Amino acid sequence: MTSAEHDRLMRANQANWDARTPVHLASRFYGLEQGLDPERWFAPFEWEDLGELAGRDVLHLQCHLGTETIAFARRGARAVGLDFSAASVAAAKDIAARAGADVTYVRANVYDAVEALDGRLFDVVYTGKGALCYLPDLDRWAETVGRLLRPGGRLYVVEFHPLLNSLGPKPAPGEGPELLLRHDYLGGGGPVHRDATHTYTDGPAVEGATDSYEWMHGTGEVVNALTGAGLTVRRLRETDELPWPRWPRMVRTESGWWRLPEPRIPLLYGLLATR
């Protein structure tokens, strides 16, 4: 697929996220009307891997509503969020202002982040939880991250495990709650086109731009993209917990997150890499 075709599909995704934003703002899933709690989206091991953030420059790529970005600011970081959706960036600025959080938000495609941020360098680049699947070219992404980090800087990716993205419920009604391997684990098969009037949250239908495109990326592809860009992978964690119940049969854990009752399989991973 050519770069022009990639750009066309990413513009479709941008329009789709613009259309999603008002639905997400009003959803129970994000719970903004009940009060902002950005820490709920983080596993304890994330803070352990990220280390001390006070006084650090932290960039959150593909930040959407910027709720996690606010958590970095509350821990003393000079926090910047970047997203390609104008509606998301506008919403993120409003949420941060109402929360009294000092966060800078920038509208840009992740591949244009170096130019959009005027070459600014960061101690930490953070991304994940549904971000990488919207990027067609991980090598280009990893190169961009490398250019955003100071020497010794950290990239932290917390992303849905590709095994989770491969699972789906049985398509026919009345066949039980079992999950089957229905989708590719590995990338290379081209984009997956979705035309959905509802997103991962509750709330009304998305109006207008309902088309979106996702690319599968196995963990090997992520690691090789980063090492190919000169970064060193320091740690890889896998967990069987998610911050919300993706499937009805998931059970709540002591951490407040959710897991499948059986079998124990990785649903989320955390990857720490340094420049």
Computed over alpha carbons, the radius of gyration is 18 Å
Number of strands: 13
Mean pLDDT: 92
**SSE topology string:** HHEHEHEHEHEHEEEEHEEEE
Topology:
Layout: H1 3-25, H2 44-50, E1 57-61, H3 67-74, E2 78-83, H4 86-99, E3 103-107, H5 113-116, E4 122-128, H6 138-148, E5 149-160, H7 162-166, E6 167-169, E7 179-181, E8 192-195, E9 211-214, H8 219-228, E10 232-239, E11 251-252, E12 258-259, E13 268-274
Parallel strand pairs: 1-2, 1-4, 2-3, 4-5
Antiparallel strand pairs: 5-13, 6-7, 8-9, 10-13, 11-12
Helix pairs in contact: 1-4, 6-8
Tell me about this structure:
- This is Class I SAM-dependent methyltransferase.
- Residues 59-155 form the Methyltransferase type domain.
- Pfam families: Methyltransf_12.
- The strands form 4 sheets. A 7-stranded mixed sheet has the order 3-2-1-4-5-13-10, with helices on both faces. Strands 6-7 form a two-stranded antiparallel sheet.
- Helix 3 (67-74) links the parallel strand 1 (57-61) and strand 2 (78-83).
- With 275 residues, it is an alpha/beta fold.
- 37% of the residues are buried.
- It contains 8 helices and 13 strands.
Outline of the structure:
This protein is of the alpha/beta class and 275 residues long. The protein has helices at 3-25, 44-50, 67-74, 86-99, 113-116, 138-148, 162-166, 219-228, and strands at 57-61, 78-83, 103-107, 122-128, 149-160, 167-169, 179-181, 192-195, 211-214, 232-239, 251-252, 258-259, 268-274.
